Structures are given as C-alpha cells and as structure tokens.
Predict the 3D structure of the following.
Amino acid sequence: MSASLLALSTGTVHQRVHWSERVAHAALALVVLALLVFLAAPLAAILMQSVEGHDGEFVGLRNFIAYARTPALLDSLWNSVWVSAAVTVITIPLAFGFAYALTRSCMRGKPVFRGITLIPLLAPSLLSAISLIYWFGNQGVLKSVLQALGADAIYGAPGIVIAECFAVFPHALMILVTALSLSDARLYEAADAMGTRAARKFFTITLPGARYGLISAALITFTLVVTDFGIPKVIGGNFNVLATDVFKLVIGQQDFARGAVVALLLLAPAVLTYGIDSYVSRRQTAMLTARAVPYEPRPARGFDLLMTGYCSLIALLMLAMLGMAVFASFASFWPYNLSPSWRHYVMGLVDAEVGVAFVNSLLMAAGTAGIGTLLVFCGAYLLEKTHGAAPLRGLARLLAMLPMAVPGLVLGLGYIFFFNAPNNPLGGLYHTLTLLTLCTIVHFYTTGHLTAVTALKSLDGEFEAVSASLKVPFYRTFWRVTLPICTPALVDIARYFFINAMTTISAVVFLYSPETKVAAIAILNLDEAGEIGAAAAMAVLILAASSVAMGLFTALGWWVNRRTQAWRAR
Amino acid sequence: MTDDLFLDLRHVRKTFGAFTALDDINLGIRRGEFVCFLGPSGCGKTTLLRIIAGLEVQTSGEIWQGGRDISRLPPAERDYGIVFQSYALFPNLNVADNVSYGLVNRRVPRAEAARRVTELVKLVGLPGSERKYPAQLSGGQQQRIALARALATEPGLLLLDEPLSALDAIVRVHLRQEIRSLQRKLGVTTVMVTHDQEEALSVADRIVVMNHGVIEQVGTPLEVYREPASPFVADFVGKVNVLPSRVQGGQLEIGTLRIPHEGGDRPVQVYLRPEDVLARPIAPGDAHVFDARIDKIEFLGSHCHVHVTAQALQPHPLTVYLSLNFLSEQSLSEGSIVRLKLLPERLRVFG
C-alpha cells in the first residue's frame, strides 16, 4: 500500500494516447502477431520437439545425447564443417581478388564482369551442381581430365565444394565490394606523401580497412554452405551432410525429435554469424567518417591488365558453369546426340505435367513480392515513425531481425512441426501455396526490412511531428508523403522478394504437396528420378524467368522514378 | 498582468534515467509575447520546447495554455504551429500543398484554402512560388514556407526550434527581422529556441537564459545584458572581463582602485563588459582613472579588441573596445600607454 502511494507521488506524467496512435499501435500489434505465428511459433516448435520423446513427454537432453552417440550423424557433422570451411577458404580469396579489381583498378568492362558474377543469384544454387555433373559426371565431357587428376568421381565432397564455390561467390563478392568501396582516399595520399611502397599500403591500409568485410563475408559463406540443401542433394552421392540428414530424418524416417536436434545444430552457426556480423557492421560504419574522400583508382597498365586477366578467367568459369546447363537442357540426348531440340522442355516438363510447378513458382514469387513488400514496409514504418507501446516495439524489432539468423531449412522444419500439429487451427494452411508464400516472406524478411528502414531513416525525422501539429493523422502523411518518397525502395524490396522466391529451396522443401510443388523443388524431384535433362531445363526456365523479372523490375523502377521522384530535380 | 498570461509552465521537470535535463522550470509567457530560450547546447532549451509541443513528455509538472491544462494532451490535441531547423517540408509536395497541408484536413473549402495559401506565401515574401517544389528553393526560402505552413491553421502559439541555425549568416540576420515583424503583425505568441545570443537580443521581448536544465535569468534583452543575474549569464551573453577582487571595509578593492561597496568583507569576482571601460571622454579629476599598456590589438573592422595590462589592476589583463578612429587619432599601437576610466555603476559583483 505504502509502496503504491510512493509510486504515485514520484510517478511520471503519462501523455494521453491520441486515437490515431491507437490505430498505429493496433497495426503494429497485427504485424507482431503475424511474425509470432509465422516465425516465433515454428521456431518454438523445433525447440519443443528437440526435448520431447515419441509420445510428447519431456526427455530433457536425451535426444541430443542419443544424437551424439550415433556415429553416422557425427560423420555428417564433421563433413558439413570441413566442406564449409574448405569452400570459405577457397572462395574468400578469389572473391577478394575480384572485388579488389572492381574497386581498385581501372580495368575496362567492370559492369560486365560484375553482371556475370551476379547471374548465379538468379537461379537456384543447385544449377551449378547440375552443370558440374554435365562437365565431370559419369557421362561428363571432361571426366577423363578429372580421372587424370587422380579423383575417381565428382560425386561427393569434391562436387559439393566446387558447386558451392560458384553458388556463394556472388554473396561474398557483394560484401567485399562494399567493404573495399568504403575507403578514405586521404589515407592513401598521406601514405604516398611519405613514399610508402604499394605492398606496404596494401597490408597497412587496404587489408585492415576491409577486415570487417572479410570477417563478415567468411561467416556468411560458411553459413550459406552449411545450411544449403540443394547442392549436396544433387551431387553429394553418398556423402552425408547435416542439411541432407535433416531431410532424411524428418521426411524419410519421420524421426522428428532427432531432426529437431540437427536443425538446432544448423541454427547455431547461423545465430553466431548473425551476432558477430551485427557487431562487426557497427564497427565498420563507425570507422568511416562523413568527411572521408572516396578512393579513385588511377590507371596502371600492368596492374589493370593483370586484373582484367584474372576477372576474365573467373567470369569465363562462371559462364562455362551456367552455359553448360543451358546447353545440356537443349541437347537432344546427352551425350550421344547433342543437336539442339526442345525435347526436355516439351517432353520432360510440359508432357510430364511438371510445368504446373513453374506456374506455382510464379504465383508464389508474385505473392511474396506483393504481400511481403506491403508487410515489410508497413512494419518498418510503424517501427520507425510512430511512438508509444514500447514493449510491443521492442518485440517487433527483435522479430524483424530474427529471420536473418534462421536458415531456411530450420524455418521449413519449424513450419512442419507447428502447422502440421494435429490440434493447430491453422493446420488447413499446411501444403497450401499460401503457406509456402508466407514462409518465403518470413525467410527473407530481414533484408527487406533493413532496406525499408534505411529508406525511412533518410526522411526528415520531424515529418510526423509537423503532421501532428497540423492535426493531420499519421496514416494520411504515410499515404501522401512517406510512401511516394519511398517507392524506389519498395521496388527494390519487391524485386528481392521475387527473385528469392523463384530460387529458394531450403524452406519450402518441407511444405509442398504434389499440387503446390514449385519449380525449384521440381528440379530436385526430376534429378532424383534420373531426368537430369529435364532438371536442367527447369533450372534454365527459372533463370530465364528471374532474368525477365529483373528486367521488368528495373524498368518499373525507372518508370516509378520518373513518375514519383520528379521533385528531386532542381 | 496575470490576465494575459497565455502559457504557464509550473514545476516542469524532465529526467532521462539519472540525468536531469530540466529541473523545476517555472515560467509564464504573456499573450502576444516573443520569448527566446537561450543557452549552450545541452542546456535543456530544446527539450523544454518539445515538452510544450507534446513531442516529449515531462517527468512531472504542468503546462497550461490559454487557461487549459495541456500537460497530458498529445501533440494533435494541442494548439501550436512548429518550425524546425531542418525545415521538414514535404519534399514531394509543392509549396501550395505544403502550406495547405493542415487546411485540407480541416475540410476548409478548396477555394478558401487556395486563397489562404496565396495570402500566406505573400506574407512570407514568396508570392507566386506555389507550384515550386522545396528542392527548387534556397534554404531561407524553404524556411519561409515552413513558417507559412505553421501559420496556416492560425495556431495560438508558434514554436521555432533553432529555425535559423542552418542558414547562411546574411540570410539569418535578414530572416530573423522578418520573423520578428511578422510576429508583431500577427500578434501570435512565439517561443524561439536559439543558441545565438545576438539573435535572441535582436528579436526577443524577453529572453530566458538556461544552463544545465535550470533557468538562470528571465528578462528583457537589455536587462539580461546590462544586469546579468549570474556569472553564467554575464559570460554567455556578450563579452566580459572577470577580475578577482575583494570587498574590505565597505570598499571594493580592484587592484589599487577603490570603489564604495556595501556588504561584509569577502573575496568576490567583478564582471565588467569591455565597452564599460572608456578611453574618452575623460575629464581631469575624474575618479577610477588609470593608465594601461597596450599588449595586443585585435583588428575587427570598425572597432578593435584591445588587450591591456594596467599597474592599477595588476596582475589582471583587461579587454576593452576602442574604435579604429580613436586608435589612429591618438597614434596608439602595441606598447603604447592609454588612459582608461571604469564606470563603477556598470560593474557586476558576484560573491
């Protein structure tokens, strides 16, 4: 009693909540609810599952102990770790060299080189695995070269490592290009004034400046490889890794408890990466002041030529990889009749009624882009530009950042556990395209969210205060001012969602039914059935669709810019 | 006097964790008055303005506006227009849409709103700019439009948060006079936050000098300048010489100078403005006259800051203002001796 009296006398003044703010709080609550149901609940389901026995009883850490006593599974863990480490060690120096050429040399054709290395992002990662099989597989064109090198077959660890290097290269490259672009020319000028040699400048200025980028790129490469499912499935043969184990345990053996344990193992490096990366990126931004002068490379004939040669080699390898899949998808009967035909597209896809998977993919991608962009942008706006309801706000911020730390495979598994549970009223969503779409939105939520937050932060922070003083409710300012200014960011977010929805495998592989199968999954099924020609054809279709979408989104962006950003011109 | 009290702050206090941003602020502002909150950065002046606007919530205390307790009202239910340092104009809307932004929501008929926009842009000196976008205007022009937007709904209170700080020096001087004459014309009660003492002195009816979350002094510009209530005010507003002295036997002892002063014996600080040390006119027989040696002349155009040391004031150096004409007339340069006179009535003594 006396305590409450004391609280009353020293209590702070609380402003009355305006009705328009209540609207904002309700909308924010809806976003939080959606993220709770479609993100937090599935993750919680995995945690539950990992400590439950067959009849749902609590067994503590018994599942983890049982796992640690299964030699085959421990082999997979070791395989996953060393393969991922190998890919990281190979890819990071290669990508660093490429990024260095793009940012620090005066070589010609930079946009072309950059464009070529980004192509893998437009296709499912397993496209490179399919190409590798055509190059070095049992009936591959260069199988003899492989054998001359002493390896007996591409299937297994060598195939996984090579294919993953191609698949993760663009991811590592983008981070390293950003890191190397953030440099202060004045440091180099000061070094030059003191007569510093090039090698010393590299080791004392360039490398330390890019170290956070290197750490971040290495961590992300490792995580991408350790959690990738498609490539080991296609080219892994009998070589088991964690990601394929999860699939076998859950879909093959229905051993949910052990599947959950493996999923948590996959979650660990991702969460670690996320933690270190967010720490590192904070350091990175603090390092560069607003006064920094951007570095402008100067022509140096020998160096530029060397860099052109290096980039040409990498680009050529990339094109060889992509080109083989395209070529093979048109070959009539590999390897005996290589004359081009539509056979795999017509017989393998349309006649085999797999074409519907492609339509499903387009529907899912469109849904993800549409609903996802709306949800992400509204969520980011409510977080950044409205006030009050602090606990809800903190929860929303956490949930928006969480997907970054959750591999798709883990998310998909959580969806099975949660939505397939017998007494879940949302169980009807299971196997539907709607759930596939929602899962994909959640999977890629964080990047979209960060794009939206960046766009919103660039707006004057007092717009909302001015609106309130003029008695204009926030949603009117959102509609008349915020949204029109942010349309370029909206297009970016939609494009990101669309491309990723077209190419993703890991989360949706647990959730489809025969009717709602998507194109990327169809590739896996076709490959499993030995229809590798049709699988290649489907991969090429996705690549083509993503490229067209990319072009359309760029055109849309250009149009939107002209329509809504006219005021930027002086 | 209390009849025309328009804005009343009672015991306003604001803490951020353990930090006290504002401590027991009491202030009454009269209807139609132009008040400046002046102080160094971090003194709490902007926080106080944002509390009046409802953009921050005070930890305790009450705010009354026009006889209404607005302490707990959200911004949208208060009655004010606000202008920020960053202009905060909506960049994708043209001038007319910006100015009429608050009118549209009040269901003002379209023709009426258009007429009001024309009137307002004329009032702020930018007639014919209705179709332009903010990016096509200079900083000073944008701030005029922001002012027009804030005034469009005829608020009872105008809040200006460092409105001139982002502008060039010349535009700043020009615009502050325009804001002042506009405020006179409309008679709207205005609170302006600034860290620029010259700005505050030139436009305000009354200045509220703040430091470390408390009000140091409230007064007219002349009062604040001539009769600073504390060493901080004397130091922050204008330039000042500080001379450590003592009071002894009813006399103020500054070096060898003696000036009658009441109060018990104690060490004191004497605050003396440079312009209150005169070089002329000095008549023979004048009191408080002493000779000083010129150490350094800092040339500032029409007048100079002259740093001197005097035997009478040893060992404390003194800064005085002397006109360029006087220096050349008397052919004074560094090392010369000049005769100076203190104005005892202008000395401020702080214990």
The longest helix of chain B spans residues 169-186. Chain B is about 25% helix and 35% strand. Residues 307 and 319 of chain B are 5 Å apart (CA to CA). The first strand of chain B starts at residue 5 and ends at 16.
